[in-house]
Design a protein that fits this description.
The complex is a heterodimer of chains A (247) and B (488).
Chain A: E1 3-14, E2 17-28, E3 32-36, H1 43-50, E4 58-63, E5 66-67, H2 73-77, E6 80-83, H3 95-105, H4 110-124, H5 140-152, E7 158-162, H6 170-187, E8 190-195, H7 198-204, E9 207-212, E10 215-220, H8 222-227, H9 232-246
Parallel strand pairs in A: 3-8, 3-9, 6-7, 7-8
Antiparallel strand pairs in A: 1-2, 1-4, 4-5, 9-10
Chain B: H1 2-17, E1 21-26, H2 29-43, E2 49-55, H3 58-66, E3 72-76, H4 77-84, H5 93-102, E4 105-107, E5 117-122, H6 123-128, E6 145-147, H7 149-153, H8 158-165, E7 172-174, H9 177-186, E8 191-195, H10 200-203, E9 206-208, E10 221-226, H11 231-240, H12 246-259, H13 262-272, H14 285-319, H15 322-337, H16 340-347, H17 357-381, H18 385-393, H19 398-428, H20 441-450, H21 453-481
Parallel strand pairs in B: 1-2, 6-7, 6-8
Antiparallel strand pairs in B: 3-10, 4-10, 5-8, 5-9
Helix pairs in contact in B: 2-13, 12-13, 14-15, 14-17, 14-19, 14-21, 15-17, 17-19, 19-21, 20-21
């Protein structure tokens, strides 16, 4: 199986603090990978390096064999969807305008855009009459659905989600987790999701990458981490979350 | 938009390039009156004339005359020697004439009276403290002085005077000449500088202190004019020489202040003197208000338009922080601290500007820049990082990010800055009158000199109304220009 995206020796420092030590990672087509770990472990940094909100200090990133660089980044960004915790929706644009912003920028035909919008609403279970509302008029869960539609609008090869459900209350969160799983399966979407919630990771992730202090500690299925922890940190991380969840 | 600017600039240029002889005056009663008299005299020769009244001080008038932007204005021999030719000690008329000719400027013979500087006090205060002469002030260090700004910095002004008389260090307040009389009358100051022919001295029962050490030079009134004026114009000015003695001038000044009308004083001069001049028809208040307001709006509007066209792009650059942004913000802040009169004095000798609406517009443009630059920069900097990152992550180009995301989001702050500039410009546009560029400052400045509240209000009320209208129309703009999603 060929990797869609490959990170080779990628690293990042903020001043003297190392956010990410040189790291190799590759992500298979159609697979959902969850990056998990405590705050500051470098998991969000990886997403930000991929979408090039950060320039890596060392190493390179290849999308389908093409090395990402400042020259081709805008084209490559259009092949990647990115969803962040509070949605990052533009407050001056309606839900519709937020979703179609890039399609309009690329001058896609109107009927094509309308059809795509219907598909996306059905996929994310977003009500059609909400499309003309502004972000301030939507609930937190609805905003994340719009954000997801915007990320999926151009049918990206890769979807990056940075704690997309982090700010939602538990019931809305559970509903969205279920919907996300269905969407990933239906679209056979290659996705990288960042979370610090082990249950969410176990539910959504076919592959889990556990990180700590800027390094990958262990990767594999959730069962691997539970049954064959690579070191004491893995055990501690899993036990801590489980005791919190089931105490 | 460019076409409008070009058309307006052309119309100013055309107005400037026209034929009439431009007469100017300083912003005090006597100067207005003498300029009116000169205008009547010139009109009698059939010349086209134009009186730019109440301009802001010797330096501006001299620069305008030297560079040929005005044809003549009244001045005083002491001022010419001390301030223009910078010659210490007394100068003969011949020496003055020679020196001025180098700049292409002629000087008429003395008009008759000597309007010297003097210090004045309320009669009862002076009597109680037994002050008759300037040297008597030495014994009274507690007196409150209110002096005109020009007097505090002149070579024949306060500091050399205090040094010569050995006056103790005092607390000096700078105050406008007309307002100073009012301050003296109500007792908020005790001593002020005055011109010896001021009508206010006898009207308010003030005493002029004797210059017992003969510090002040002679200030004989004369006309300064371009040597290139037509010979008949120069001849008619020369005819005024010797016709105005001190008591006559005081009488004319009093008439102007009593009737709140400078041309009445000129009427009075010609009634008993030369009767041949044409009657000067006076303009109706409505037409004057219309003329002032239109000019005021032109000045404030064009300068605001330029400030927006330049300020928003500068604000965008400044929002990126870094040394260039810092430099832009520093520059627009520093401009704001330059006093308006100083800024005008700097611009008047510059060839393209001079005594014209262009200079006022340039000054207003510079003053209007800071709120727009700063608000644009702040509005853009205040956009939350997740929004910026979303715009970048979508793959929008930088220009599109700015046009479709950042500028609309910052529109409220940017518009607030433009609104501030607009209101500031409406207020500050009154300074245009200091260089004879018209606007509502004209009645305000002449009213200040006459201490005439009605005239001041003729300028102040329309200016306040304009400011309110601007405020309201911008509230309307807010509704049109700020995206609905930001107003929820």
């Amino acid at each position: 199986m060929s990797a869609l995206i490959q990170l080779a020796g990628i690293s990042k420092k903020y001043g003297a603090a190392t956010a990410l030590h040189p790291t190799d990672l590759s992500f298979e087509r159609g697979q959902t990978t969850v990056l998990i770990g405590p705050s500051g472990c470098g998991k969000s940094t990886i997403l930000r390096l991929i979408i090039r909100l950060l320039e890596p200090d060392t190493g390179r990133i290849e999308l389908e064999g093409a090395t990402m660089s400042p020259q081709n980044i805008d084209d490559l960004r259009r092949r990647i969807g990115y969803v962040i915790q509070d949605g990052g929706l533009f407050p001056h644009l309606t839900a519709r305008a937020n979703v179609l912003l890039m399609a309009r920028h690329l001058r896609k035909p109107e009927n094509e855009m309308a059809a795509r919008l219907d598909e996306l609403c059905a996929l994310t279970r977003f009500p059609l009459d909400g499309l003309d509302r502004y972000p301030a008029e939507l609930s937190g869960g609805q905003r994340q659905r719009v954000s997801l539609m915007r990320a999926l609008a151009l049918s990206p090869e890769l979807l990056l989600l940075d704690e997309p459900l982090g700010a939602l209350d538990p019931l809305v969160r559970a509903a969205l987790q279920k919907d996300l799983k269905q969407i990933f399966e239906r679209l056979k979407q290659t996705a990288i999701l960042v979370t610090h919630d082990l249950a969410e990771a176990a539910y959504l992730g076919e592959r889990i990458v556990l990180m700590n202090e800027g390094r990958v500690v262990q990767e594999g299925a959730i069962a691997d981490l539970q049954e064959r922890p690579a070191n004491a940190f893995v055990t501690e991380f899993i036990t801590a979350q489980r005791s919190l969840a089931f105490a | 938009m460019k076409a409008i600017c070009a058309a307006l600039l052309c119309s100013f240029a055309a107005a400037h390039g026209a034929e009439p002889i431009v007469i100017a005056s300083k912003k005090f009663t006597e100067s207005y009156v003498l300029a009116e008299i000169a205008q009547r005299a010139l009109v009698s020769t059939g010349a086209q004339t134009n009186h730019r009244q109440g301009m802001g001080g010797t330096i501006i008038l001299w620069e305008a005359l030297r560079t040929g932007q005005i044809g003549l204005y009244p001045d005083y021999t002491g001022t010419i020697g001390q301030e223009i030719l910078k010659t210490p000690g007394a100068m003969t008329m011949e020496a003055m004439r020679r020196e001025l000719a180098i700049a292409g400027v002629g000087i008429s013979d003395e008009l008759g009276f000597n309007n010297t500087y003097t210090l004045v006090m309320r009669r009862e205060t002076a009597a109680a403290a037994q002050i008759r002469k300037i040297s008597d002030l030495r014994a009274h260090p507690n007196l409150r002085y209110g002096l005109t700004h020009e007097f505090t910095i002149r070579r024949d002004g306060w500091r050399p005077l205090a040094a010569r008389y050995g006056l103790p260090a005092q607390e000096i307040n700078g105050i406008d000449h007309g307002l100073g009389y009012e301050a003296l009358r109500v007792g908020s100051i005790d001593v002020k500088d005055a011109y010896s022919t001021d009508a206010k001295i006898s009207e308010n029962d003030l005493v002029a202190l004797e210059d017992d050490l003969v510090f002040f030079p002679q200030y004989k009134a004369v006309f300064l004019y371009r040597l290139s004026l037509p010979p008949e114009a120069i001849a008619v000015l020369q005819k005024i020489a010797g016709t105005l003695d001190e008591s006559r001038m005081i009488q004319l000044n009093a008439e102007a202040e009593r009737t709140k009308n400078y041309s009445r004083a000129a009427d009075m001069y010609f009634r008993t003197g030369d009767d041949s001049t044409a009657r000067h028809e006076s303009e109706s208040l409505t037409s004057k208000l219309l003329r002032w307001t239109t000019r005021h709006l032109q000045l404030a509007g064009i300068s605001l338009l330029l400030a927006v066209l330049v300020g928003v792009p500068l604000g965008i650059v400044a929002s990126r922080r870094g040394p260039v942004g810092q430099a832009i913000l520093a520059f627009s802040s520093v401009v704001q601290t330059i006093p308006s009169l100083a800024l005008l004095a700097l611009l008047v000798p510059v060839p393209f500007f001079g005594i014209s609406a262009r200079t006022a517009i340039a000054a207003l443009f510079l003053y209007g820049l800071l709120p727009i630059v700063r608000n644009t920069a702040t509005g853009l900097q205040d956009i939350a990082p997740p929004i910026r990152e979303s715009a970048i992550a979508l793959g929008l180009t930088r220009a599109t990010q700015l046009r479709q995301i950042y500028l609309p989001m910052a529109s409220r702050t940017i518009l607030a800055g433009i609104k501030t500039s607009a209101v500031i410009n409406i207020g500050t546009a009154t300074l245009a009158a200091l260089i004879g560029a018209g606007g509502l400052g004209e009645p305000i400045i002449s009213g200040l000199n006459l201490n005439d509240h009605a005239t001041i209000l003729q300028g102040a009320i329309p200016a306040a109304v304009l400011a309110l209208l601007v405020q309201w129309s911008f509230d309307l703009f807010d509704r049109l220009l700020i995206p609905k999603g930001l107003r929820l």
